[in-house]
Write a structure and sequence with these properties.
The complex is a heterodimer of chains A (317) and B (357). Chain A is 38% helix and 27% strand. Chain A has 317 residues and is an alpha/beta fold. A 6-stranded mixed beta sheet of chain A has the order 6-7-8-3-9-10, with helices on both faces. A 4-stranded antiparallel beta sheet of chain A has the order 2-1-4-5. In chain A, strands 12-13-11-14 form a 4-stranded antiparallel beta sheet. The longest helix of chain A is centred in the middle third of the chain and has 14 residues. The N terminus and C terminus of chain A are likely disordered. With 357 residues, chain B is mostly helical. The mean pLDDT of chain B is 91. Helix content of chain B is 66%, strand content 3%. The longest helix of chain B is centred in the middle third of the chain and has 33 residues. Chain B folds into 2 domains: 254 residues, no CATH class; 92 residues, no CATH class. Classes of the chains: A alpha/beta (317), B mainly alpha (357). At the A-B interface, helix 5 of A face helix 1 and helix 9 of B. Bound molecules: adenosine-5'-triphosphate and magnesium ion (MG).
C-alpha cells in the first residue's frame, strides 16, 4: 500500500529514466555484460548475482568509468557520454573496492571528494559532517584513514557517494564488512534517502536487498535473467520450495544430493532441511513459501553446488 | 579549482618519499656549498689562509685590481703575484697561490712565471673584461648545477604518483565525480607544475642565499672569464658577468624543472603505478645525457636543449652566443614551454580518458 502512494508521488515530479540499449562490455572473448537492455526509473534496485556475474562491470558502465564495447546508456534520452559533467553531477558511486589516501583524515577525504563534486566551502563542510554523523563516523572524523577498520572505510565510502545528494546512487556491495548494527543503519539511511532517486545496489547477500530493494534484478553471465518485486519475483518458484525433516546423521547425504537453502538442527535428533526442487524431494516434504534466498539458490545452483565446469561450459556458447 | 589544486599540492608534499628526497638533496646541496667554502685556499705575501679567511684574503687582493682588465693591470699583477716556478720545474701556469694569481698566470704567464708576451686583446679580443673576486660566485654556480641535476630526481619522485597513484583505486571515485575528468585532471597537472616550480625556487633561494652570505655581492658585475684556471677550463667561454651567470642558471633551472615536470606528468598518466612512472620518466629524462653524442655534433645542439641539460646548464650555455649576445641556451626556454603545453594537455587527457580496471 505504502509503496503505491510513493510511486504515485514520484510520477508527479520530474522523473529520471536511465536506460541501457543492448549494452555490452567484452573483455577479450568474455562478455561481462551481454547485450543488456533495461530501463531504470526511480526506486531502489537490488542487483543479485554470483561472483563474476557482471555486476561490477555493469555498474562501472553506468558510471561511465568504462566504455561499452557495444550499445548505449541514456539518461532521459540523452547519451551519458555526451552529458558528461552534467551526468556525473547526478551520480554517486561506491565502488566494490576503492582506494583512499591513507594519510588523509576522514573529514579531509570527504572535503576532497566534495571539492571534486563541486560542493563549495561551507556547504561542503556541512554536508561532510552530516554524512559522517549518518554513517556513524563523526567521532573518528579526525583520525587518519589508515587507522580505520574495513567496515569503517566502507562507511566512509558510502558517505562520499552521497555527498552530492546524487539522484542516481550506485553502490557496489555496500554492506561488505558492515556489522549487523551498521547494516541496519545503512538500510535505514538508504530507505530514507531513496525517494525520487534511482538507487542501485549489488550484493550477494540476499537479506540486504530483501528489505530495502523495491525491485530485484537477478544477473547471470552478463544478463538480467529475472526481475521483479521481492514479493512477486519469488512466485517463479512457488511450489518448488520444500521443508522436510530427516535424521541428523543422514542430513549430510541429503545436502550433497539436493539443492538445500537452509538446514536447522532440532533437539530431537532431527534436522529440518529447506530444499529447492521441482519435484517433491522426499515423502514427508511439505511446500513452503519461497523467499529470495531460495530464488537465488534456484538460479545459481550450479555454482553453489560447485559444478563450475558446467557453468563455464554454458558460458562459452 | 583553487581548492582542488590545494588538495593536490597537499597530497604531493605530504608524501614521505618526496619529503625525504627533497631533504636529502637540500642536505647534499648544503654539503657541496660548505665543502667548497671550507676548501678555499689563498696565500699572499707569506700569509696563508683557508675557508672564510681565504675568501677575505682573495677579496683583499681583488680589490687592488678591480675594474676593466688592461695591459697595465696585467703587468702589475704579473710583477706582484706571479710565482716563479720552483726547483722541481713545476709549470707556473698551474701553480695556485690565490684566485687572482691563478687567473692572471693561466693567461699571461709562461711556464717559468714570466710574462708570456700576450696582451689583453690577444687573449680576450675586443671584449671588455671586468675583473674582481669572482671565485665565490662561479664556485657557487657550479655547486648549484649539481644540486639542480639532483633536484630533477626529486621532481621525478614527487610527480610520479600524480596520476599513477590514483590508478590503485581512487580513480574509481575521482572519475565518477563531477569534476574528476575535467577540473581535477587539470588541477593535478597544474599542481604538479607548481610543485616543481616551488621546489626549484626553494633550492635556488637556498643556494643563492648561501652564496650571498658566504661571498657577498662582490664579483657579480665581473666577468666569469677571468677566474682561476680550474674554474674556467672547459667552462662557459663567453664574457658574461657572474650576475648574468647566476641569472641564466636560475632561469634555466626553472625551465628545466617545468620541462621535467611535464615529462613526469605524462608518464604518470600513462603508467599504472608510481614506481613504473618514476622509472620511466627517469629513463626518458636522463637518456639525452647518457647518449654517446659528441659535444661538437649537430645532434648535441638539439639534445642540449632538453630539460636535463637545462638543469646542468653549463653545457647548454657553452654552445654559442646568438645575435645580440643572447646565449644559445635561451632557445631552451621555448622548448620547455612546448613541453609544458604538451605535458599539461596530454597528461590530463590521458587520465580523463582512462578506463578503470
Ligand atoms: N578488467 C577486466 N579484464 C578482464 N576481465 C574482466 C575485467 N573485469 C571483469 N572481468 C571479467 O568480467 C566478468 C564479470 O566481472 P564483474 O567484476 O563485473 O563481476 P561481479 O558480478 O561484480 O562479481 P563479484 O560478485 O565477484 O564482484 C568476470 O568474469 C571477470 O573475470
Ligand atoms: Mg563485483
Amino acid at each position: 500500500m505504502e509503496r503505491k502512494t510513493l510511486e504515485q508521488k514520484t510520477l508527479e515530479e520530474k522523473t529520471l529514466e536511465l536506460k541501457t540499449l543492448e549494452l555490452t562490455k567484452q573483455y577479450g572473448r568474455k562478455k561481462a555484460v551481454d547485450c543488456m537492455s533495461i530501463t531504470l526509473t526511480e526506486g531502489v534496485y537490488g542487483l543479485l548475482g554470483a561472483n563474476g556475474a557482471g555486476k561490477t562491470t555493469l555498474m562501472r558502465l553506468l558510471c561511465a568509468l568504462q566504455r561499452p564495447t557495444g550499445g548505449r546508456i541514456l539518461l532521459d534520452g540523452q547519451s551519458i557520454g555526451k552529458l558528461g559533467e552534467e551526468y556525473r553531477d547526478l551520480l554517486g558511486y561506491l565502488p566494490q573496492r576503492f582506494g583512499y589516501y591513507p594519510d588523509f583524515r576522514a573529514i579531509d577525504f570527504l572535503l576532497y571528494m566534495a571539492a571534486l563534486k563541486g560542493l563549495e566551502g561551507k556547504a561542503a563542510e556541512r554536508k561532510s559532517w552530516e554524512l559522517l554523523e549518518e554513517v556513524g563516523l563523526s567521532c573518528e572524523a579526525k583520525h587518519r584513514i589508515k587507522s580505520f577498520s574495513g567496515g569503517m572505510k566502507q562507511r566512509l565510502g558510502i558517505a562520499q557517494a552521497m555527498l552530492n545528494d546524487p539522484r542516481i546512487l550506485i553502490l557496489d556491495e555496500p554492506t561488505t564488512g558492515l556489522d549487523p548494527k551498521e547494516r541496519v543503519r545503512f538500510r535505514n539511511l538508504i530507505s530514507a534517502f531513496s525517494k525520487g532517486r534511482i538507487v542501485i545496489l549489488s550484493t550477494h547477500i540476499v537479506s540486504d536487498v530483501e528489505f530495502i530493494a523495491e525491485k530485484i534484478l537477478v544477473m547471470k553471465s552478463g544478463r538480467i535473467i529475472h526481475w521483479g518485486r521481492p514479493g512477486e519475483i519469488t512466485s517463479e518458484i512457488q511450489g518448488q520450495v520444500w521443508e522436510c525433516a530427516v535424521s541428523t546423521e543422514q542430513a549430510d547425504r541429503y545436502v550433497a544430493g539436493l539443492n538445500v537453502s537452509n538446514l536447522r538442527n532440532e533437539r530431537d535428533g532431527h534436522t529440518v532441511l529447506r530444499v529447492v526442487a521441482a519435484e517433491k524431494p522426499m515423502e514427508d516434504a511439505r511446500i513452503v513459501e519461497p523467499n529470495l534466498e531460495d530464488l537465488y539458490l534456484y538460479y545459481f545452483q550450479e555454482q553453489a553446488a560447485g559444478k563450475d565446469d558446467k557453468w563455464k561450459g554454458e558460458d562459452k556458447r | 579549482m583553487r581548492k582542488l589544486i590545494g588538495f593536490e599540492l597537499h597530497k604531493l608534499f605530504a608524501r614521505r618519499l618526496t619529503q625525504a628526497a627533497f631533504l636529502a638533496v637540500a642536505l647534499v646541496s648544503a654539503l657541496f656549498t660548505f665543502y667548497t667554502y671550507q676548501n678555499k685556499y689563498a696565500s699572499y705575501k707569506g700569509r696563508q689562509a683557508s675557508g672564510g679567511e681565504a675568501v677575505a684574503l682573495d677579496k683583499e687582493i681583488a680589490a687592488k685590481y678591480e675594474g676593466v682588465l688592461t695591459d697595465e693591470k696585467v703587468r702589475q699583477m704579473m710583477d706582484e703575484l706571479a710565482p716563479k716556478s720552483g726547483p722541481q720545474g713545476l709549470n707556473a701556469i698551474y701553480l695556485y697561490q690565490n684566485a687572482m694569481q691563478s687567473a692572471v698566470s693561466a693567461r699571461f704567464s709562461d711556464m717559468y712565471g714570466n710574462w708570456n708576451g700576450l696582451r689583453v686583446e690577444d687573449v680576450f679580443g675586443e671584449e671588455e673584461i671586468r675583473i674582481g673576486y669572482v671565485d665565490g660566485w662561479i664556485g657557487a654556480s657550479r655547486d648549484m648545477e649539481k644540486s639542480f641535476v639532483f633536484l630533477s630526481f626529486v621532481i621525478l619522485i614527487m610527480l610520479a604518483p600524480v596520476y599513477s597513484g590514483e590508478y590503485g583505486g581512487v580513480d574509481n571515485l575521482i572519475l565518477a565525480s563531477r569534476y574528476g575528468r575535467t577540473k581535477c585532471a587539470s588541477a593535478k597537472a597544474l599542481a604538479g607544475i607548481l610543485a616543481a616550480v616551488l621546489v626549484t625556487a626553494v633550492m635556488a633561494a637556498l643556494n643563492v642565499g648561501a652564496a650571498f652570505l658566504l661571498y657577498g655581492s662582490q664579483g657579480l658585475d665581473c666577468s666569469i672569464l677571468f677566474a682561476q684556471l680550474t674554474l674556467t677550463e672547459g667552462y662557459i667561454p663567453f664574457n658574461i658577468t657572474c650576475g648574468a651567470l647566476v641569472g641564466y642558471q636560475v632561469l634555466l633551472s626553472f625551465a628545466g624543472a617545468v620541462g621535467t615536470a611535464a615529462v613526469a606528468l605524462v608518464l604518470s598518466a600513462v603508467c599504472r603505478n608510481p614506481m613504473a612512472a618514476m622509472v620511466a620518466s627517469a629513463a626518458v629524462c636522463l637518456a639525452p645525457a647518457l647518449l654517446p653524442v659528441p659535444e661538437t655534433g649537430p645532434l648535441f645542439r638539439l639534445l642540449v636543449l632538453l630539460p636535463i641539460y637545462q638543469m646542468q646548464f653549463s653545457s647548454l650555455m657553452s654552445v654559442e652566443l646568438l645575435k645580440a649576445g643572447v646565449p644559445y641556451g635561451m632557445l631552451a626556454l621555448p622548448v620547455s614551454a612546448g613541453l609544458l603545453a604538451v605535458g599539461y594537455g596530454a597528461s590530463g587527457n590521458i587520465f580523463a580518458r582512462h578506463e578503470v580496471m
